[in-house]
Design brief:
The chain is mostly helical and 375 residues long. The protein is built from 15 helices and no strands.
């Protein structure tokens, strides 16, 4: 193989189909320790094969190997969802029984579906960018937020929820999903990426624009204020706030927050303690010019909220969730509209920062020189 083309990584990821079928046919696949050991061996083999295939012209970015291996596990997750929904059979039955049985929950299956579709597409996009030597930082930051949010909810939820007594050795296979994204995130943030270059006069002109000259930013601030209230309110709900409004909400609008699987409770707490501070800082960033961090962190936030809300909204409506914890029919529209707006806002904020970044850039010596050259 002469180039680290994504076609090779894509073909490698598709080997998940025969590998899962073969392992499922082994009689020893009923042993939890064997399953964990087999998972480790498969991951190590993937690292070796992906490294071997690109020896002719190895990629400059070591994250190529991370994305190649993770694309394989994305196909595994898609197989899990397809099998649990009855579309296929005979591939991952062993893993669902003795590996990670909590994946059979609504939340577990929906994060498998998200990983097998959205994350898989993002992996292929980043592999293409690496192969072509292009910048993939925006895609990488969205993926980083999405995967970290998934793990921050999934791992604690497994331990403290009703499936806490069914933790098997295969649970440790999730550790790379937490450690490698942290390492990848550091590389993506520090990667060879520069902010868009704008002439100094354009940056200064953007800085002089008051908030009333930017109607889109006014709308985003209004959204952020609403999102802050919604985040605090749902955090109080899962913390068993005794007020009548919290009691009414959890029983009449989002009873899924009471589900003993604990995923929704963990998600609301993660949003309360991690997302909430960012929402407050984002308002500051929209009011104060030169906040360059907005260009990166809005993408991380967009990915995190998109993944979390997909799993939460889907689980609240999914037939796998017990009927008593699903959204009541008379509250369906209120639930969907409020949660959809909560999901859409960070995506629009990230798009605004990418589309018109001049307001968030700082007037540097380089930009001033660029401006003089244009004069």
């Amino acid at each position: 193989m002469q180039l680290p083309e994504p076609a090779g990584a894509m073909l490698l990821s598709l080997t998940a189909i025969p590998v899962s079928y073969l392992v499922n046919s082994l009689s020893a696949a009923s042993d939890p320790t064997f399953i964990a050991g087999m998972g480790v061996l498969v991951l190590l083999a993937l690292w070796f094969v992906s490294f071997y295939l690109v020896q002719g012209n190895p990629p400059q970015d070591p994250l190529f190997y991370v994305f190649a291996v993770f694309s394989f596990t994305s196909i595994i997750d898609l197989i899990i969802w397809l099998e649990e929904e009855g579309y296929i059979r005979g591939f991952m039955e062993f893993y669902m029984k003795e590996g990670e049985p909590y994946l059979r929950t609504a939340h577990g299956l929906l994060i498998c579906l998200w990983d097998g579709t959205v994350h898989y597409i993002l992996y292929l996009a980043m592999l293409v960018a690496i192969a072509q030597g292009k910048n993939y930082k925006p895609v990488g930051l969205f993926w980083l937020g999405s995967l970290l949010m998934s793990m921050l909810i999934f791992l604690p939820g497994n331990v403290i929820g009703k499936y806490g007594s069914e933790i098997r050795p295969a649970f440790l296979l999730n550790v790379p999903y937490l450690l490698l994204p942290i390492w990848a995130g550091v590389r993506i943030f520090r990667g060879c990426y520069s902010f868009p270059k704008f002439p100094a006069d354009k940056v200064e002109a953007a800085h002089r624009e008051g908030i009333f000259q930017r109607p889109l930013d006014i709308a985003l601030i209004i959204y952020l204020l609403g999102a802050i209230v919604f985040t605090v309110f749902r955090g109080l709900v899962v913390l068993d706030c005794p007020s009548d409004s919290c009691f009414t909400y959890i029983y009449q609008y989002e009873p899924y927050l009471r589900d003993p699987v604990a995923y929704p409770k963990v998600q609301m707490l993660v949003c309360l303690f991690y997302l909430l501070p960012f929402l407050c800082l984002a308002i500051y960033g929209l009011l104060t010019p030169g906040c360059t961090w907005m260009l990166d962190w809005t993408l991380v936030c967009a990915g995190a909220v998109a993944q979390a809300q997909f799993a939460h909204m889907g689980s609240s409506l999914y037939y796998r969730t017990p009927y008593t914890y699903r959204v009541p029919n008379d509250a369906w529209w209120a639930f969907v509209i409020s949660n959809s707006l909560y999901t859409l806002g960070p995506q629009l904020l990230a798009y605004r920062c990418l589309r018109s970044p001049a307001y968030f850039l700082q007037v540097t010596t380089q930009s001033a020189e660029d401006g003089k050259k244009q004069d």
